[in-house]
Fold Cbb3-type cytochrome c oxidase subunit.
Amino acid sequence: MAVEERDPHSGYLTTGHEWNGIKELNTPVPRVVFVFLALTFAFSLVYWLLMPSFPVGTTYLKGLLGVDQRTAVTEELRRASASRAAWARRIETADYATIRADPNLMGLVRETGRPLFGDNCAVCHGTDAKGGPGFPNLTSGSWLWGGKPEDVARTLQVGINAAHPDTRASQMLAFGRDGMLSREDVDAVAAYVQSLSDRSVSSGPDAASAAAGAKVFASKCVACHGPAAKGSTSIGAPDLTDAFWIYGGDRSSIRASIWGGRQGHMPSWEARLTDLDRKILTLYVLDLGARAP
Ligand code: HEC
Ligand code: HEC
């Protein structure tokens, strides 16, 4: 039996163990820690009884309270879809003008349109819908196929050069590659097209070329782009006089469009998105354009 010994400095008893003159103090774990442990243990026991806990074969202990996250989620989803159904019906049945004049409905269009656009359209048109080379800016107000809600809805439904039987067909011919125009004529008409939006071309070194290009344009291009080069929304031929370009308005991009032709491809969304989703996207895209600076 060790003799009880008290450490004169701290006042604790020692355990009687000693290593090289260093004595071990007897400092037990404080009572409050034991109380805390006991409380947490009691709590876990109660929690285990009340709430779903251990797996048992193919089932699990369900707990006395009958709490089930799955029914809670189902209930929440049901409530969300009931409230969605109410406003979805209003968007489905109201005409475009009514919806666009209703700030509440437009709020819902913006809220649901943003993720729809992000999931389906942003890969090509960009998250801000401003497009990029080959993919048109949808906020510019300059529309290839028309900017009325019905036009945009139709574009989404059938696509452009898409697999849909009624697809919009966008065919810019390969005038250079297919030998319809000589190299000089392609260069000339490219200069002319650029001069339509960039006045400096007509007074610069390419003035003569642009003037020659005007004749080529009159014979080869007006059928689709129109005599004033303003384009045609019935065949998706772009206005060549504005600042809006799908493929670029610098000389080499314009030349490449004329030399090799362009056939932009936009999928049909009829089979992939519901009528409601397409209507929301139509309104969303038009709204982006209306609010673009
Ligand atoms: C695979 C790429 C791609 C995806 C995805 C895509 N688009 Fe397009 N979209 C295009 C291209 C390319 C054009 C231009 C086609 C052309 O050259 O005429 C276009 C054209 C359009 C037009 C016609 C623009 C005009 O000026 O008339 C609208 C509207 C449009 N897209 C909306 C959408 C919406 C909304 C979505 C999402 C549901 C979407 N696009 C998804 C590639 C895409
Ligand atoms: C058969 C109709 C048709 C004819 C003829 C035609 N174009 Fe086009 N052009 C189009 C269409 C449609 C597009 C849009 C292609 C696309 O969106 O992919 C286009 C696009 C272009 C573009 C690209 C515009 C941009 O925004 O990037 C240029 C430049 C152009 N055409 C110039 C010409 C010139 C010059 C001629 C005459 C030599 C000509 N086109 C003849 C239908 C035509």
User: Anything to note?
Assistant: The pocket of heme C (ligand 1) is lined by residues 120-121, 123-125, 134-136, 138, 143-145, 152, 155-156, 160, 170, 236, 246, 264-267, 269, 281, 285 (CB under 6 Å). Residues 199 and 227 are 18 Å apart (CA to CA).
